[in-house]
Amino acid sequence: MKTRNKPRFSLLPMLAALIAVGLPMAANALSGAIFTTTEDGGIVNENVRYGSKLEVYLDGGPRMNAPASAAALPDGNYYFQVTDPSGKKLLSQDPVICREVKITNGVITEYLGEGRTYQSKGKEVSCTEFPTNGNKTITVHAFNPDMDHGGAPLYAMVIQLYPYADTPNKGGVYKAWMTPVDNYGAVNEGFHGFIPRYSKTDNFKVKEKKPQYGIIALRNYHDANLNCRLDLGEKFIWQWQYGIEDGLNVRNDDNTNDESTGDPTTILLKEALGQLNDLWSLDHFRWTEHQDKNLNSQYFTTSGYVHDYQAFSSLNTGPEDPSLWDGDDPNDFIQRFVMEMPCPDLFDDGLAPHTSNEFSDFVPTALGVEPLVDSDPQITITLSQVGFANIKVKKIFDTNNNGIQDGNEVGLANWPVRLKYAPSLLESNGGPIPDTISSTVNADVYAEVVARFGLTADPILENGYANRMTDVNGEMTFSVLLPNGYGDAPLTQYPSDYYQVEEATAQGWMATSSITIEFDVRSEASGPDGRLPPIMGNAYLDNNSTPLGDVVFTNICFNEASFGTKGYWHNKNGLGEMETAFVTGYINTLDPYYSETSYFGKGDEPFDGMLTDGTPVEPAYKNDMITDGIIDGAGAGTVKAEVSHFLIDSNGGGDPREQLAQQLLAFLFNIEYRLGGDAVLMMPGGGTMSTADIVSAAISAWQGTDAAAQNHYKTLLDTFNNMKVADGNGVKYVPSDPSQCPALPSPY
Predict the structure, then answer these.
(1) For residue 225, is pLDDT > 70?
(2) What are φ and ψ of residue 739, in 5° steps?
(3) Which of 87, 222, 529, 708 shows the greatest Cβ crowding within 10 Å of its Cβ?
(4) What is the tens place of the pLDDT at every residue in 662-706?
């Protein structure tokens, strides 16, 4: 596309004149031409109208409307540089590796500095980004199509010359150079490695004199004690992410500086002085890993100040003097805002409410920003953060009654739990948090918290309590718990009050863990000296430094069952329930039964229906009267017959192990056929014990020589085996499924 005509001139008359007067030509001089132009290559030698150093681009080869072969540069790789008109002072501010382009068919076709980096002040810097004020960078070496030859077949490009320093020339004149990489010499050779006979040059002029600045400094501090103002000992936070959107609706990200070296983080308005009367927006995000910056970051922005710039001072660990922020003098600050929660507007000239992570819609000129030659910031926006904690509560059906959550134990849904806020945080005690926050009471606070954190409970807080129910997994999380302890600030180490989380109780249920936990929340920043993000609230057990993880409440309930005596399992009804496979596959593996003992007179172990000599055992009977009949499946030579005889075998020999083994066998049948397997039992004297532990202890006593222990477990098992629901004394056990338990507690 051709939008304007470029000035044209011919080299032929000049060459003819040189030959006519006999002047020598440089041997192997570089052919072709270069020239400065605009960002689209539209004007040749715009050398008296450039308004800024950023506007100057380098072009080479054919000019506008010229044939493709006219003034073409030889193909290859080239370096470029900017100097003063004499060439003595190098003005280019990045290394030569960042100033390399490729010439193809006589025109610039590739910028080879793309993707390259170099070291500057110990940091790795991209060739396409140049450090400016503070830790800000500006995009440089823009690479754009030439509007005349940018299409087929040449695909010519133009390259931005910036970054380069101001020329010492009083007329604002600069010189652009280009030389083949193969002809580039030592930096002390020629003009900074550019040999004149192998180089092409072009002078240009920039109207811009000393640049004007409009600069806002940005600072962030840790409001560790949640009072919405800077205090002595509260630290400024480095590397906090923010975004600035200018009057042209262009947004850029950056991070706050480590100011200990004296350099503030700045919002450079140099290139937007024309927008100082427009609305600008500052969004101020910092979030923890894998969390969404809007909904899941674990901090509040508690307050913000716009005030005159003050240089950094290490005396009070920050640039501002807290004594100036007492709120008594309106000149202490230009503007102030605080969040609706957790910092109600206690200042006469505050601008609450604002969202928790933005200082939005400000006009720079209204805050005192104006174009100046001095590059120091004119005002400071100081924002403060405080971390909050989220506490997860788990409600677990503690099948084995050990007070912890085991891998196979399930959560209890719809169980009431509640959190009592630390009293010092509530408005009724002079704190920042309304005692009740709902859609109808303190509705503005409710709306802000719901929008910011996605909370769904209504009310969120009622008379200082957050009443909730566990979800389908038996879990729920109490969110946005502000600090009642003061973290990094050199104030009270531990608070005088605490948070409390508790679970509800119900008849028929028994807690196997504490039902109340007291804890504190402290706002803490990361890093060795507490100056790095993220800022988070961390929970600790009350009045100590033990971190609080998930709160796990464990409960069990008890059902009742009737057990059968050893006589029951010996007779017709018991033998009818009994399964031969259970005896041969399990009972016979246990120590009292897998090998022959000295005390079994009518048979021997294991239970296989045969005596040691191969003689079948006698048939079973349902009581002492053998004439009462034989049980199907319990005739002579059967496993059931041998079990039946064992259960009522006479203990005339006085060995206490036999009675223990008999009661244990009946107990094992009761576990299998009354409880459906191992379970936790309520002990006759109080407390609980698993059936597996009871069996293990009884077997250990049987294996030992302590007659007292053997008699103890014989009596214990006999007691269980005689317990009946009909007598009002059933065996209380924990069911395997909580749906078999009594009703859940009522909501708070």
Answers:
(1) yes
(2) -65, -15
(3) 222
(4) 999 999 999 999 998 888 899 998 888 999 999 999 999 999 999
Alpha helices in 353-498 (DSSP H): 443-453
Cα–Cα dist 620/631, whole Å: 7
The two tokens of residue 288 are 């923890």
Q: Tokens for 663, please give them.
A: 């009661």
Residue 165 and residue 245: Cα distance in Å, rounded? Answer: 27
- Assess whether pLDDT exceeds 90 at residue 296: no
141: which DSSP letter?
Answer: -
Tell which residue, 425, 395, 415, has the closest CA to residue 499.
425
Q: Is the separation of the CB atoms in 625 and 648 below 8 Å?
A: no
Whether cis (ω within 30° of 0) applies to the bond prior to 364 is no
- Phi, psi (degrees; rounded to nearest 5) at 173: -95, 140
C-alpha distances out from residue 56 to 82, 161, 191, Å:
11, 6, 21
pLDDT at 486: 61
Distance in angstroms (rounded) separating the CA atoms of residues 415 and 269: 56
Q: Which residue has the tokens 């209504």?
A: 458
| Residue position matching structure tokens 């926006």 | 381
User: Residue 465: exposed, middle, or buried by beta-carbon count in 10 A (0-12, 13-18, 19+)?
Assistant: middle
Distance, in Å, from the CA atom of 321 to the CA atom of 314, rounded to the nearest integer, reads: 11
Residue 18 has a pLDDT of 37
Quick one: angle between helices 691-703 and 707-721, nearest 10? 140
Phi-psi domain of 540 (left: phi exceeds 0; alpha: psi -120 through 50; beta: other): beta
Closest C-alpha among 89, 100, 86 to residue 159: 100
CA dist 565 and 577 (Å) reads 14
The Cα 533–Cα 239 span in angstroms is 7
Please state, as a whole number, how many other Cβ atoms lie within 10 Å of the Cβ of residue 39.
14
Q: Flag whether pLDDT at 735 surpasses 90.
A: no
Are the beta carbons of 256 and 527 closer than 8 angstroms? no
DSSP bridge pairs for 682: 688
Question: Alpha-carbon distance 245 to 251, whole Å?
Answer: 4
Share above pLDDT 70 across residues of the chain, in percent, rounded to a whole number: 80
- Count CB neighbours of 561 within 10 A: 19
CA 252 to each of CA 281, 384, 495: distance values in angstroms, whole numbers, following the listed order: 11, 21, 41
Residue 7: its pLDDT value, please?
A: 37
Task: Of 161-170, 175-184, 377-386, give the range with the top mean pLDDT.
Answer: 175-184
**Which residues on neighbouring strands pair with residue 518, listed in sequence order?**
500
Report the amino acid identity of residue 293.
K
Q: What integer pLDDT is reported at residue 21 of this predicted model? A: 36
Report yes or no: 336 and 304 within 8 Å, Cβ to Cβ.
yes
DSSP 63-129: -TT--TTTTPPPSEEEEEEEE-TTS-SB-B-S-GGGSEEEEETTEEEEETTTT-EEEETTEEEETTE
Average pLDDT over residues 441-460: 87
